[in-house]
Design goal:
With 197 residues, the protein is an alpha+beta fold. Helix content is 40%, strand content 18%. It contains 6 helices and 8 strands; from the N terminus they run αααββααβββββαβ. Strands 3-8-4-5-6-7 form a 6-stranded antiparallel sheet. Strands 1-2 form a two-stranded antiparallel sheet. The longest helix is centred in the first third of the chain and has 35 residues.
């Protein structure tokens, strides 16, 4: 009788362990699949800014960029027919970060809410990049963009891209032109739950 009881207990325990084991394996597989599921927008912008797609975390930011990509540059423009650099950054900050910032690049730069810094090693996704033709803080700011990470930023520019288009595009911040024109970066408050890189 004792032997039968012991065998019954062993059988029941092994069944419970194997069921739980199967549940645990199924759970782990499901979790791995969720972690490995990469959205098309992550793949697209991962290629553009040269990072693994999984590192594209702020999906609302990239959806916003994607909706404006290729929109032509127009001084004073505020819509899909044409947009200038500062309205693009203002609109991006409003829609992605829930913060209404100033309308012009110069005002965005001069605003008390802009925490300015020069050290490029401190750049984080969402920081503003300010430029002028002299690369000098003693001249008015004439251009602004938003840092994305891995030395890339998004902006609306009258300069032609490699494809020959102007307007909303992603550029490499380490290019000589942008380094020569760089004045400072600026960090603005963000009202968001999105992870920032």
């Amino acid at each position: 009788m004792r032997v039968f009881f012991r065998l019954s207990v062993i059988l029941i325990v092994s069944m419970l362990v194997s069921c739980k084991g199967k549940d645990a394996i199924a759970y782990l597989k499901s979790k791995d699949q969720q972690e490995q599921e990469v959205l098309p927008i992550q793949k697209k912008y991962g290629r553009i800014i040269d990072v693994e797609p999984e590192k594209i975390k702020n999906i609302p930011l990239y959806k916003f960029i994607d909706s404006w990509m290729g929109t032509p540059y127009k001084m004073g423009g505020e819509n899909k027919r044409g947009i200038d650099c500062s309205f693009f950054t203002q609109f991006l900050y409003h829609d992605v970060y829930g913060n209404l910032i100033e309308r012009t690049a110069e005002k965005q730069y001069m605003a008390p809410s802009t925490d300015k810094f020069i050290g490029q090693e401190f750049l984080r996704q969402g920081d503003l990049l300010f430029f002028n033709h002299k690369g000098s803080e003693y001249h008015p700011i004439t251009h602004v963009g938003v840092y994305l990470g891995n030395d890339y930023f998004v902006h609306s520019t009258s300069n032609l891209s490699a494809s020959g288009d102007n307007g909303v595009q992603i550029s490499n911040f380490t290019d000589k032109r942008w380094q020569r024109m760089f004045v400072a970066a600026g960090r603005k408050p963000k009202n968001t739950n999105h992870k920032l890189n």
